[in-house]
Fold these 3 entries.
Entry 1:
Amino acid sequence: MNERRDESVNEAYCGTPAASPEKAAGPPYAECVLCRKPTEYAESVKGITLCPVCAWQEAQRTACSG
């Protein structure tokens, strides 16, 4: 019975992230919230925007090692 509960916890913890917004066709670009460099997204995108480098580093930090 504990195995079943552990599986559901792992699925919730290691689930795939939500889809990212569409990339912008051109300037103006939103600033990265971590390093303030331009991102691939338009300024009108709501929420946290990360540049490709910070997005990769964030994915490394939050990757499921299980």
Entry 2:
Amino acid sequence: MTTKPAGTYYPAGTIDEFLPRIGRVVEIQGKQLAVFLASDGTIFAADNRNPHPKGGPLAEGIVSGHYLYDPLYDWKIDLSTGLVQAPDQGQVEMYSVKVENGTVWIAV
């Protein structure tokens, strides 16, 4: 698993603020994160920086299942691990997420 070890959790908003399958940018402790709510209710938090050499924001991607489809480079990224799927290569930094009493918390 490539999710960073849990550090200090910070509130990112309420679960109702996140639309299914659409990314939302959240800034925590100076880091810009892309947060995604999968259709099964799982929430993922990733560094909002595409691992493609030309970069770009990840929050603009579309989620299907636990995969993010990047509209800029047509890359498929596994949100469970952060790994870019073959034939492309790369990895996105992922962050631990928990939901308590309707609040989304992300460890940075």
Entry 3:
Amino acid sequence: MSEKKEPSIWEGFKTFLMRGNVVDLAVAVVIGAAFTNIVNSVVKGIINPLVGAIGTKNLDHYSSCLSSTCKGDQGIQILWGSVLGATLSFVITAAVVYFLMVLPMAKYLARVEARRKAKEGAQEVIEVTELEVLKEIRDALVAQRGSGHDRP
């Protein structure tokens, strides 16, 4: 009877770390963090000042009071300005990501895929053409052999 030795915790950990998806995930997190800085810079440096020129940059102070008296922190306040600000920030960030990163990358990948398909299509045409040429050569050789046997 042979006993199967279970891998040690260290070997299991090494196997886990060496999986491709763990490394890919780590790279994605690092790139995502760096990309977040770029997006935040674009939003804070370009988009927010443009929005601020139309209205206000900070919506956190806008609220509505549900109770009869709202002075300072007293009363029931609905802070709809901070919700609106967070929603606008999300929409603006999503737009920046989409129009500056996702859309150009999608167009680039579509062009690369179209070139790849065009190359494959051209290769198939070449292969079909070569096959047709070989068939023609075969038919010509058969015709020559057949005409040579018919002569007296």
